[in-house]
Amino acid sequence: MAELVALSVTMEGAGDEDLMRLRLPITGQLVGVSVEGSGATGSPTGGAVSVTEETLDEIASVTMSSWRGDWLSHHLGGAASPVALNAGASLGVRLYLNGGTTPTLNLTVSLWIVL
Known about the structure:
Blueprint: E1 4-15, E2 19-23, E3 28-41, E4 46-53, E5 57-64, E6 68-72, E7 83-85, E8 90-98, E9 104-114
């Protein structure tokens, strides 16, 4: 039976194009990405989060509305296709902020993986 696990990345005071990397220890499929942001400074007008993998490049992108957003595959009721990930895959989570002056954001990004 498949298991759904969440790998979470938390960034405090993240600026435009800040990146956090994590390594997936086992084979799985990315089926969702959930983003929750708060504490914006510098008056940003919007933002997005991009999830990348070394070989596949960008594998998911979340545009935030009111500092929230989701990328969902068919597994979670969305329209996207799940992304197969090999054991040892290096995943990057990058924040993009629009507008403002030296904008920052606190955020948590959850990567939903089916094992």
